[in-house]
TrEMBL record, chains A, B, C, D, E, F:
Family statement: Belongs to the HyuE racemase family.
The protein, known as: Asp/Glu/hydantoin racemase
InterPro entries: Asp/Glu/hydantoin_racemase, Hydantoin_racemase-like, Iso_Racemase_Enz_sf
Gene source species: Pseudomonas typographi
Amino acid sequence: MRILVVNVNTTESITHTIAEQARSVAAPGTEIVGLTPRLGAESVEGNFESYLAAIGVMDCVMAYDQPFDAVIQAGYGEHGREGLQELLDVPVVDITDAAASLAMLLGHSYSVVTTLERTVPLIQDRLRLAGLYQRCASVRASGLAVLELEASPSRALEAIVAQAEAAVHEDKAEVICLGCGGMAGLDALIRERAGVPVVDGVTAAVTLAESLVRLGLSTSKVRTYAKPRAKQIKGWPFEHGRG
Amino acid sequence: MRILVVNVNTTESITHTIAEQARSVAAPGTEIVGLTPRLGAESVEGNFESYLAAIGVMDCVMAYDQPFDAVIQAGYGEHGREGLQELLDVPVVDITDAAASLAMLLGHSYSVVTTLERTVPLIQDRLRLAGLYQRCASVRASGLAVLELEASPSRALEAIVAQAEAAVHEDKAEVICLGCGGMAGLDALIRERAGVPVVDGVTAAVTLAESLVRLGLSTSKVRTYAKPRAKQIKGWPFEHGRG
Amino acid sequence: MRILVVNVNTTESITHTIAEQARSVAAPGTEIVGLTPRLGAESVEGNFESYLAAIGVMDCVMAYDQPFDAVIQAGYGEHGREGLQELLDVPVVDITDAAASLAMLLGHSYSVVTTLERTVPLIQDRLRLAGLYQRCASVRASGLAVLELEASPSRALEAIVAQAEAAVHEDKAEVICLGCGGMAGLDALIRERAGVPVVDGVTAAVTLAESLVRLGLSTSKVRTYAKPRAKQIKGWPFEHGRG
Amino acid sequence: MRILVVNVNTTESITHTIAEQARSVAAPGTEIVGLTPRLGAESVEGNFESYLAAIGVMDCVMAYDQPFDAVIQAGYGEHGREGLQELLDVPVVDITDAAASLAMLLGHSYSVVTTLERTVPLIQDRLRLAGLYQRCASVRASGLAVLELEASPSRALEAIVAQAEAAVHEDKAEVICLGCGGMAGLDALIRERAGVPVVDGVTAAVTLAESLVRLGLSTSKVRTYAKPRAKQIKGWPFEHGRG
Amino acid sequence: MRILVVNVNTTESITHTIAEQARSVAAPGTEIVGLTPRLGAESVEGNFESYLAAIGVMDCVMAYDQPFDAVIQAGYGEHGREGLQELLDVPVVDITDAAASLAMLLGHSYSVVTTLERTVPLIQDRLRLAGLYQRCASVRASGLAVLELEASPSRALEAIVAQAEAAVHEDKAEVICLGCGGMAGLDALIRERAGVPVVDGVTAAVTLAESLVRLGLSTSKVRTYAKPRAKQIKGWPFEHGRG
Amino acid sequence: MRILVVNVNTTESITHTIAEQARSVAAPGTEIVGLTPRLGAESVEGNFESYLAAIGVMDCVMAYDQPFDAVIQAGYGEHGREGLQELLDVPVVDITDAAASLAMLLGHSYSVVTTLERTVPLIQDRLRLAGLYQRCASVRASGLAVLELEASPSRALEAIVAQAEAAVHEDKAEVICLGCGGMAGLDALIRERAGVPVVDGVTAAVTLAESLVRLGLSTSKVRTYAKPRAKQIKGWPFEHGRG
């Protein structure tokens, strides 16, 4: 099967990292295709950028001209998943939901460690709407911006570990979710340091997407995620070559 | 003061209706400017279109080159308000929140009557995130699409009244919120028929926006709605003349 | 239009302060009438006194013999608003609800700073019932009694600012509500110090009451706030001259 | 021990019924004293009357000049209990809370059957604040006013049984609480008809009050229910002979 | 009346302590019978042991061959109460629920002080399901294992008092529930030290069980707690002499 | 990898059906081992039987003497999963949680269709504790006992389809979860009839268990699910040959 893993920002190197992370757990026979939006911010750390990401992700998925079996939206706490679910017949998995769903199978409560403080309410709100927030002990910010994760991996590791440890000891989290697509690959190190299971959203999403495909399950079309009605739309789809 | 009232769809006649409705309650000295997005759907009835609306609204507000004191987002249950709050220093009022806030001052519980069944979960989710859902007795769909409201006002009226009455008698609503910008102007008729206060989001939002401006209050910038960080963004702002 | 602003305690100087604060934001043409209950405590800081306030407020509003268009109950977290809503045909706005409603338009979460620790649960409970508690980050007490606010304004200011700052930094509040009618007038100073919008309930309530009147909206009478049934009542209304 | 059972309305015959009901389950050695407020309505069916009841009950308890060990407030869903808890050192039990507390020991969910539809939100709100609402399947109104219960017991019985049966079959209630002090004595008949345990608030409160006294437990005085602070109060206590 | 007080662990000395505690408050004419399971752990501090306790308690109650009027399950936060409610016609009271029910009559919020940190989530979950968690300020662990309570009473007292004080001052608890059957007897000492009412689950449960019996109330049999259906069961009841 | 799929009742033919269903979706290289408890009821439809199942499942997993990589508890809404999580180092997946987790990726809300009405509250409670209940539209009973599913598959199909359709049309469910291990294999038929995705817990659990194993994730051991402490336990483990 072919799974599209869509970055939410326009930084190709992050797309590459995410796709590699996805491939590291994909089942034999699963092809991972990494996509980068042609519209949007170089990193997503707030509502304005998150709404751009929603459109950027939908655009690049709709512009992809080969068949595929599932889509993973690889941004933590971003908007847009519901739009993709309307547009597509194949299953859509957001890494925010994927990480929380698996974390809840592993412990009584989980915490998310993310990048900047300003993104904490976005993640909380997305988990609330997803119905996955009740057992969330906390969402904590490492204080590092998305692009700093790439630039300073060791500093990032320390900052994330510090918050993970605080989540375990102060908030009573029993599992840590890595709250940023760009944290892919740090999970084993953090697990060792924090002493609890660490769930990376990208790899979690790959196994969930594969699960849905194998089970023949896809998005319900009876109500919320029914195909958009036929109507006149201005400025969409984006013409090729722009952005 | 000048208040921008931004439609969420691209249908100019609806922008006209909404702006007229806004003017009908604006205080002396308040200028209402109606804006129509140059990107988006002719009507918004689902997540894909709602995410387009989020971008379309931000685009047309940012492209507006005169000073203004507040913005009203005139779509019921749509995405985008948080992005505007980041981008602007002036207050932003969404008609979904405005209607619910005033309705809660008038009765123990309120219901929303909207257009199509598929939009009900969007409205519920927006009210949930806004923290205004606890006293919502129900969100009911009249079964009429947004554009049918304009085409068949008397049929629309009957369908909306039927749901308003069901909300009052079955769901124990004590106030009705009109759940669509395009319903502007029907409130007095429905109030007469349903026997309870009827809150129209557009007029509610005008008085709330004026209130905030008079009180010198605007969006908090300390965390969630801080200005977006300076960064490279592709495909934004939209160039003039496209869409 | 004429708006009655009713103090919840029997201290005339506080009524005067509240009325002046109300007048400072009232629209041209709005007359503010300050009323002081003839029954009740010199300050309200607990349930017993709050229940007396409920009766004292209803008594003085019913004894007012001129026409009026709206009533503001100017006590933070006190009982009684629902009774007024039954007795009157004009809208009733409690400053607790007013401040929270506007605060929620300005930030992702808000905190209340009030007087004594013992009043915190009353405020929390009133906000819970009003359906406005979900986005309340905290209710914090400055430790100063109501009458100390009048006697020592600079000490009061420091104590309130300290709690406002703690609310912003520890509880992640993005907006502060002043949780006492007697704090009227401190909002600009606190805003400057705490760096976030500060909502004063009295001024918020004035604009909300004006909004409802302008929109032709008043309390729903179909159920919870229907007129009291005709029946024999002992000891009510209070005879003139007592209290 | 001596327990004061305080009616919330001014109808002496209801006080008599309630006190007799209390005596029917009181332990040997427990003296039941029925009190009737000298201020308030002949029956309590709404917020205005409920606030009068709050004061009326506090007044008649404070005017009682003999020692007592506990107080029962015998109105379903009325205000005032928190005020009594501040004023007194002995335990205070409200029949609303008492019935719900015992009902929750008997089944997975319970319903309340009360008098008029307009009192339903009051009861729901009191149960919400008491923290006893989560397992409440419904609050249903028989449509009979309080005084009709006394005048037409057999008609009352039928109306209450009909709602109790609807609660069991439609709302999945497993226990019924009688939601009115005036329903005292109907419990055995309704239990037989509805096939589920029926909890009467007055008798439940007697055993709970006795339990607290026997265990040497009374209201916590550290915060919410601390003694009112010494201050000047106008019009209180009510002079003897008025009302 | 005869009340069975069933220990959840297999340590006879704890059964003895619990039964003595129960007798200290039982009404004249109430006989307390202490039962010790023949299956299970010497102390219960986790899910595995708690599930064993569920079976052990049901086994020893079903094996008891004399008539009885009520059963008290004397483990804090353990499984099993629902099974007993199905098997028996007489009322069943769990000490977790009993303590919380009475605590909520005494203060605006309560905390539980229990033994080991690992049992905290079990207690929280049991209170959540019981519908008694909303007003729980915290569940705190003293860090002492169940059997250490017996071995080192003075050390236990200090550790419990420290947590009780933290609950009052940091979590704003107004009442403390002793979260372990083995803490029976420490309540008076802790009350004196922490300055708030202290509710012991065993004595609370005795008065609640007596209350239900006196009121003629027992478990509803219409749905959740209906008698188990007749069916083939392997390995149950346990034969005499094993374990 | 080897996954143990443990039936919660003692009926071998149901174990066989469940194991076959599990094998139908297992990845190449995954060995499914079906286990039947030697203690417990022939079908589980209530709390007493569910607590027996908790012990029966733990017993047969602990008695299994070969290595394994994950355990699936194949009973819908039963007790015991937390105990297994303490005892084992490998991941444990309950089919109740598995079905809900995947259903939430497919639609805005889901419903469960189960067997007898009396099991509905058990399922609701397990979903509540699992933090997966918020988006549950309803739990509906087909009215057929577990063993009737095996005896009358066509009658079962009709009864389940009827409830699934009611869930979609009345409760607005967008996905259906089959609420009984014994319903394994009916999913395709019901999906065709009800028009929405149908999630079978057993197959969902297989893919989730495989996911966790592939990701190297297992139960957190820092708190709730830490290994039971070493202590004396009576009657456990069950001796071989009994039951």
